[in-house]
């Protein structure tokens, strides 16, 4: 056994929360040791190829893997951070001594402060034959595809329609894997509607109020039996149906990894809204044990953006306590981070988190603007099917048909309140507005809009389109976002689809913007018969 090494701050976990915590403290002179059990940093970010929502300040519009590169670059340049890879924390004891296994040696550390950013684990689901080969967690599928380049199957049934289930379904399609359907037991889709809508435009059915009964197969998954649920979550008689697939992907939630915290006897409570047992902590992320902080999913399941901000608050709180200088500046930064977090949680999608925090005794609700806690539109049909209602569409289209006569204009098909603003920030003509709050639905000022199409590539939800109704006497042009391979080429004839992925007509590709600025979200201009300008919202390239 080695001697005990003193540390100023030990951060456990090299994901978005841990990296942010380490940087926040190290930037104020705190010596940080960052322990990550894997041989690389990144946590969930390493497999997130999609663009983030949220505010510009927190990397909105940037892909998760690119956010990771920026964070790692900052960590590597910071002389106050020592990175301990392949270093598993084995225990934390009452005297705050921490044991870490590294290079087959167990070492002991005595940190002044510790920030646990250990993340979460995937939940499982009980159903018949759930031990057949071919049943994966969504995180495993993402790791196989996006980290190791391995396809898990050829035809996947997704269980769960939260953001992870929707995002992984989209990534499966990008990798060339068929998604047979997305099954959701709740009566409405759990994730953001823009994620659901882009899957529907690709023809993927989303079956809300349905559940899986059993997996079919002898030595591996060959299919699944699903059934409908009533309003009391009971099976509806004679609604069983067989779904053919060679893999079943479970995306049914995460639960915080609090084992080490329990070993240290940190007080925890079961809070279903936050994913399970979570540590009691104050608004500075400090637990019931002094100088022991938490950040990210271990403190309650939430989006990665919130995890990064929580990491900043924890790291700054340690810097304020241990450091000797800049205390007022640090206090200001902590307050700014809390305000940012409050803003991100203030919309309808943050209601569940706010309820969970309230159960922890955190009175985050006191400053929330209740005007933003409910949806502005009736999106019940959208959240049940992934397809906007006629009323939803009418709300976002010009009120007068003659507006289309001015030339190309942007059409936003974002109907749900959630924190996101890349479309607003990207518009050089200030033609898109959220009326002063990032949780508001974006609206296009058609008088200001020039139809430039920048927003088409910048929207993380692929919910921006440009429509040029009167491109010619008989044709219209719709600019659509496109993130698949192969890319179409100019002059190619493609199959144009509607919002449910159904074939509408053939279309001609007349322009493709697909450079560094578009960052892998190409803006493709498709010429179509004029009668389809309000329906055409996707296309398929014939290989």
From TrEMBL:
Source organism superkingdom: Bacteria
4Fe-4S ferredoxin-type domain mapped to chain residues: 440-469
GO MF annotation, one: oxidoreductase activity
UniProt cross-references to InterPro entries, sorted A to Z: 4Fe4S_Fe-S-bd, 4Fe4S_Fe_S_CS, FAD/NAD-bd_sf, FAD/NAD-binding_dom, Metab_Enz_Cyan_OpOx_G3PDH
Keyword set, alphabetical order: Coiled coil, Iron, Iron-sulfur, Metal-binding, Oxidoreductase
Record's keyword annotation contains ATP-binding: no
Transmembrane portions of the chain: none
Stretches assigned to coiled coil: 320-347
Pfam families: Fer4, Pyr_redox_2
Protein's name in the database: Thioredoxin reductase
Organism this protein belongs to: Petrotoga sibirica
